Structure formats: C-alpha cells, structure tokens
Amino acid sequence: MPKSILAVNAGSSSVKITFYTFDNPPRSIVDAAISGITAPPSTLKYQAGGRKHKEELKEKLGTAQDAFKYLLQRCFGDPELSEVASADDVEYICHRVVHGGDYRDAVEINDDTLGHLKGLEDLAPLHNFSALEIVRLCKAELPKVKSITFFDSSFHQTIPEAVRTYPINQEIAKANGLRKYGFHGISYSFILRSVAQFLNKPVEKTNLIVMHIGSGASICAIKDGKSVDTSMGLTPLAGLPGATRSGSIDPSLVFHYTNEAGKLSPASTSEMHISTAEDILNKQSGWKALTGTTDFAQIAVPNPPSEAHKLAFDIFVDRIQGYIGSYYVKLNGELDGVVFAGGIGEKSALLRRTLVDKCQCLGLAIDDVANDKGPGDEETVKDISKGSGKGPRVLICQTNEQVVGFDSFGWKALPRFPKLFDCLQDTEEWTIDAIEGDRLGTEVSTVVLGPGSADLQASGFRQ
Ligand SMILES: Nc1ncnc2c1ncn2[C@@H]1O[C@H](COP(=O)(O)OP(=O)(O)O)[C@@H](O)[C@H]1O
Ligand SMILES: CC(=O)OP(=O)(O)O
Ligand SMILES: [Mg+2]
C-alpha cells in the first residue's frame, strides 16, 4: 500500500495533524486537532472521510508532545483508517516550525540541522519550543520516518535589506541574528498561489496586501509574488496585537510596566527560558488583557458587551488600517487585491466591512451580501468586492497551514508531485536532490526552472 505524509502544526496551545495520501494530487485522509492544551479541558476535533467528531478530553495533556502522541495513537488506532495503521505507513513527517532563522527552504532533520534549530529555539522559545519537542520525539520514536521542517519565516527571505534591518549596532545585530524575519509564511504562500490562480494571474505578477489574522495576527505586502514587508519582526510579537500579544509598543514601556522585566518568568522551565518581559507582552496582553476574552468573536459584534470590547475592536482596526495605508504606498498603488485570511479574517464580516469602509480612499469597496455570507466550505477564495470595477479586489481566502508538506518550499524535500512544481514560479537556478522515478534519490543535480508553471509543464525540468 502506498505510504502517507503526515503534516504537523504545533502551536503554543494547539496541535493539528493531517495525514495525506502519497498520491498526485494528495488527498487528506484524516484531520485531527487538540486545542486548549494550556487551559484544560483540551478539546479534540477529528475528521476522517465523512466522519466528524468533537469531544472534551478527560486525559490530561500538559504539553504539545503529549497531545501529538495522543493524536497519533487515535489515528493509528482507528479501525476505519486502514491507510494509517502504524508508523510503517508514513513516508515523511512535515513539521510547521515558526522561526527558521536564515533558512530559505525546508530542511530534513538530522543531527546537524536539529543542532542548528536548537540555536533558533533560544531566539523564539515561545514559538519554536513545542514544534521542536515534537520533532525530537519523532526522531527518537519514529526513527525510520524522515522528518522535514518547514518554516513560517522562509517566505519572507525576499524582504529588502532596508526593511529587515533594525537601526541598532550592526555588529551585535549580525552576531545575534537580530533582524526582521516575519512569520505566517506557509499561510501567505498558500494564499498567494490560491489568489493568483483565482485572479488568473501569474504568481510573479501578483501584488497583494494579505492579512493573516487569528489569535496571532500579521499582514504582508506582496509585490510581484514576493514578500516585500510584513508586520511581524524578530519574533511574532511585533506588529498587530493578538489574542494575548501586545503587538508593537514602545520597547521601553515594559521597563515602566515592571522592574522585573529582565528576570526569568515563572513560566520558564528547565528546557525553555523566557523573560518576564516576553511573558507579559506575549501572553498577558492583547484582547485577553483588554477584555478578559481571547475570543475575537465576542469582540467583533455590532453591540459590544462593554466599552473595553469596543476599544479592543477599534485598536485592531486602527493598527490594520495603518499597515494597509503604508503597504499601499510601498506597492506604489499597484494592487491586485486585499485579502482577509485567518480565523478572524475569514469569519468576521464586521471587521472586514469596517476596515474596507475606512480604506475607501484606496478604491476598496465591499459587497455587503457577499461579505455577510462569507465563503462556502469548499470555496478557497471568495471575491467580496462591490461591482466589477477596476479597483483592487477585496477577497477572503480560507487559508491552509496544514498543506505544509506541499508548500513551494517543500518541493525539494518531497517526492516529485507535478502539483508541487506547479507552485514554482521562480526563474532562479536551484540545486535539488535528483529524483529517481517517483522517489527521492541521493545524487545532486542542477535543475533550471522556467518562469511559471506553464513553462514548467511545457519543458518538464531540464537538467
Ligand atoms: N465569527 C468570528 N468573528 C470574529 N472572530 C472569530 C470568529 N470565529 C472565530 N474567530 C476568532 O478567530 C481566532 C482564531 O483564529 P485562527 O486563525 O484559527 O487561530 P490560531 O492563530 O490559533 O491558528 C480566535 O480569536 C477566534 O475567536
Ligand atoms: C507566527 C504565529 O504567530 O503563529 P500563530 O498565529 O499560529 O500563533
Ligand atoms: Mg495560527
């Protein structure tokens, strides 16, 4: 029986896994997620074929590793899932890792790469720790299955130097890797491809402002199919506020907030060190601090339950509006569309309407009926612009961070699906592992790719 590919998306409070068939195109076999790991009881969502199931778990799952183990056992133990009965049925495990430092592409896990990623863990402990705990677990307990890590930051390697450089001592900046990296790149890359296809434009000619707004929120300016700026920075704390994150503030604020800022936070463990300042700004701020809830659905309502809820909504709108204005200018006004994605972007008609109304001067307009209805289950991209005019489109994209293994950064490490090559729009020279038949070989050869998928399909890939 052909093997499957397992995609893992580990967050600070949730772990989502999807098994895909090793087919072309890949098909999702089972989707399973545990949320609320840090705030029990945890909830399990399980979907396989037509079966959908949600339950509160009695088991105490204190860590992302525990949740991952539970999910694996659940899938392997499902008598109706003959395709994934054990680790022997899995060819690759593809892990979403938020911070990939200078990595431009996905990497296969071995002792060297794991050592390097350990270094990055110190730079972004809040975001990389859970994912790397699962990578370590897979290496130890599923040693025959190759693990490949895909990074949120890779998509933003194209950000120009003046945008990614912080104006601080450059020797220290370089020695410590202090620069803007940007995140949510797996999502942006999925959105870019989906929207370009929807607009019938080549990816490399597509200009977008994309919002990935969920519990963690960011926005990205994409010019000619490349990220030219994004709101997150060295870590996912910068830029927009989120469920528990402050977003950008005056950095000196934290020293007025507490004189303990530089000390280790009580939330640190022997393996993971975070400062009190990081803990406050990442975990004790955002909607939670303003309103008591992390659920934006309770905030984005026509009649907010309190002044604080209204304020939280207005702050979010203000910050996003500021970025849209800035990115519109950075894109020289040449904009194909503004895209809403992420839990809030996809679900909150009120937020979309409020923002588009505030950006009317850029030629944005929304169709209220289409906006209120939102996208159907199977609709990846939905146009909610008013009229068929020439202005930039207003779009919703139901993003998918689980397609991590099928991302354009993953083609190199995975067997050759034509679908993967469809995603490649670059004209650069790439060095890849040679492919024997359908599987990865070990020789290395140079492949020159034509510009865009049409060329690729016409020429195959030339060695
Ligand atoms: N109808 C809605 N209106 C506004 N926000 C919503 C709605 N439904 C879900 N959300 C918000 O979406 C956020 C989760 O987004 P998601 O992208 O799934 O999160 P995560 O960053 O955890 O992956 C939560 O803050 C949730 O409250
Ligand atoms: C990068 C980031 O903030 O991720 P998430 O939205 O999953 O928290
Ligand atoms: Mg997310």
UniProtKB/TrEMBL annotation:
Active site positions, chain numbering: 152
EC supergroup of this enzyme: transferase
Annotated positions binding Mg(2+): 9, 401
Catalytic activity from the UniProt record: acetate + ATP = acetyl phosphate + ADP
Chain residues that bind substrate: 96
InterPro entries, A to Z: Ac/propionate_kinase (IPR004372), Aliphatic_acid_kin_short-chain (IPR000890), Aliphatic_acid_kinase_CS (IPR023865), ATPase_NBD (IPR043129)
One matching Pfam family: Acetate_kinase
Pathway noted in the entry: Metabolic intermediate biosynthesis; acetyl-CoA biosynthesis; acetyl-CoA from acetate: step 1/2
Cofactor requirement: Mg(2+)
Keywords from the UniProt entry: ATP-binding, Kinase, Magnesium, Metal-binding, Nucleotide-binding, Transferase
EC number(s) from the headed UniProt entry: 2.7.2.1
Binding site for ATP: 16, 212-216
PANTHER family on file: ACETATE KINASE (PTHR21060), ACETATE KINASE-RELATED (PTHR21060:SF15)
Family: Belongs to the acetokinase family.
Protein name per UniProt: Probable acetate kinase
Species this chain originates from: Penicillium nalgiovense
